[in-house]
Design brief:
By secondary structure, this protein is mostly helical. The chain is built from 5 helices and no strands.
Length: 99
């Protein structure tokens, strides 16, 4: 899966900060258990991740630098959202057929 620059910065940050990663693993699990289609859960997570990116930009250098150089347009975190849901969400049980 290909991540955009913003998504890659966020993923690298999570990989280097275990406490933040644990928080997001729990958040992804919570969202995945809320039900609904994968697409709707990914869209929900997309918005939350962007808000987190903006919040981190106030305090963390890599986030702040990219926003200074490229501006503050809302950027999609959908690829990262889908990736995290696939990697961190507990697997869903498939319904068994009677045949």
């Amino acid at each position: 899966m290909s991540l955009n620059r913003y998504e890659q910065i966020l993923m690298n940050y999570l990989e280097c900060h275990s406490e933040e990663k644990r928080f997001w693993e729990a958040k992804v699990t919570e969202i995945s258990r809320s039900g609904g289609r994968l697409e709707s859960r990914a869209l929900e997570l997309n918005g939350i991740l962007w808000e987190y990116f903006e919040e981190r930009a106030r305090f963390e250098s890599p986030f702040r630098e990219v926003l200074i150089h490229e501006g503050d347009p809302k950027t999609s975190m959908l690829n990262l959202s889908e990736y995290l849901l696939r990697m961190w969400a507990p697997p869903t049980q498939k319904k068994r057929s009677l045949c």
